[in-house]
């Protein structure tokens, strides 16, 4: 008998059955597994069968209830099946027709698909080409710019291509090729731009003189414009001042050594002044420099470019500063040298202000300092070779224009003006040499005769050339004569010309009026004390100079000495510096003309003495004559006549000069006669010869008493012969007792007779007595006379010995 079923098992089986009823067949596995996992599956199967039988009975009931409806439905279904077959046939036919028609549509759709694919590919291709086209256009533009040598735009294009366009299409192979080619293009642009820069440097080296010439013309025009506006009236004014003294003196003649053609070389022509002179930027295309600078800056090589540019310009500066060896020969050599230097620094100044740091002020100042030192050294060397004052003056004007031009560009030029002060000394020396020649020509061509004037016009003309005023001469009727000769006004005019020449050099040197005045006075003093003095001395010392010429020289120098104060006034008028100003140099002309006059006076004295000596050489005394003649010797008579005519010419000389000359001549004549009497060649002397000699001395004394030159008091002139007179009286009167007794006393009658001289003359007479009186010596008188001579000679020796001891 079966065991009774527990309530729990029954509940579980019920639950499982409900799940089987309600759950999808696919999900029954877990449920059924739980049945088989238990021990009551037999009971469960029984219950499941019972449940199935229940459901079958319910289905059967349901079918029985709905059977008629089912039959009706089947009947309707059978009817529908026939219609469905017809429909099937229609659908099949329609499908067949549709399949036939759809084949064409499928072909068209396939074609459409291909077209759409191509359209998509074309669109993608267009998009890609649109991205690549700017790159290709930029590349084409780059090649065109490179071909046309527009390298800076090419570099800009390359920069845009590299940084903007290529990164967008960098995955394409041709872009990689272009990227790899960019460094090569950079180098090519650098090389080409550097080549352009080298051409530019070579071009400005060749044309720097033209640029400098243009800049100096501009400076000259500014100076001319400044002169018109300012109208300077003082010499030595500030920058751009003209010659203030031109035309101020009507006495300036074309005979001046500087009037031939001096400083007009630098004047700009009138038609050129009306034209606008182009600037450096108009003459030079600086674009290669700017392009190269920008190119190297973009490429990151600006420092190397600056270094290269400065190095090359330094080399060019050294070449420019190297003067040609023959520069000193012509002004054109100096002008070209200056033009090149000015052109060089005008270019550098323009680059400084337009290139944004390619060169800086320190670099420019360094270059200028080097250039200034080399220029000054070259000018100092080459100017020293110049001996033409006109060329030196033109060089000075050129240096001033050179300095003013560069000063206008901001370069310091004080050292150039210091150099001009050195050149001024050389200019003064060359002027002195040139004026020495002028003075020599004047002195050599002068006739040393007073200047005759036939009418009032000639008189006023001469007075206009030389400051001379003599009321007595003005009262005299025409024709009349000036006391001086032609060389006085000519020398005076030349001195004024020299002053003008000195003034010309002082213009535009930035000197004060006092400095100009001091310079002119010092140079004029050198002209007077050295040049003119030497010329006068040479004329005075010439062998063939005559007494008449010497007399005229004394008269001329006297008038020139008086004219010195007018030269002082002349300098004061052209410099506007009063002589009372402190440290004003005085003219030494008075001393110069005094020295020349004294030299002429001494030469007159020497010349007179030489003439006297020449006459004395004609003396032919018979020293053994028994008795004297009846008159003075012929040579002495001629000598006295010469002296009278000579002293008659001395009427225009100052009184003391004529008196001194006359006294000097008489003293020299007395001394020469004494030496003639005592010379060693005269071994014997007779009393007759001594008496003849006494007649000649008496003739000289008569000449002295006649007063050949006025102004001597009493017998002053005769005192020149007093020594010779006392000596002759002593021997002719044979007054030895008085001489020996009174010797050494102030009241001695023969005070001027020297015992040595007396002894020499006595020995000559003693020898004569012995020779001519060989047999007479046995006579008593002759023996007594000989003894007396021996005694006197012995006493004279005693006096001499006593005097020496």
Automatic annotation (TrEMBL):
Organism: Podarcis muralis (Wall lizard)
Name of encoding gene: EXOC6B
Name of the featured protein: Exocyst complex component
Coiled coil: 77-104
Biased composition (Polar residues): 220-233, 253-262
Domain Exocyst complex component EXOC6/Sec15 N-terminal: 47-216
Region forming the signal peptide: none
InterPro entries per record: EXOC6/Sec15, EXOC6/Sec15_C, EXOC6/Sec15_C_dom1, EXOC6_Sec15_N, EXOC6PINT-1/Sec15/Tip20_C_dom2
GO biological process, one term: intracellular protein transport
Domain Exocyst complex subunit EXOC6/Sec15 C-terminal span(s) in chain numbering: 416-764
Family assignment from sequence similarity: Belongs to the SEC15 family.
Role played: Component of the exocyst complex involved in the docking of exocytic vesicles with fusion sites on the plasma membrane.
Gene3D superfamilies in the record: Dsl1p vesicle tethering complex, Tip20p subunit, domain D, Exocyst complex subunit Sec15 C-terminal domain, N-terminal subdomain
Positions with biased composition (Acidic residues): 267-277
A Pfam family: Sec15_C
Region described as Disordered: spans on this chain: 220-280
Gene Ontology CC: exocyst; plasma membrane
Keywords: Coiled coil, Exocytosis, Transport
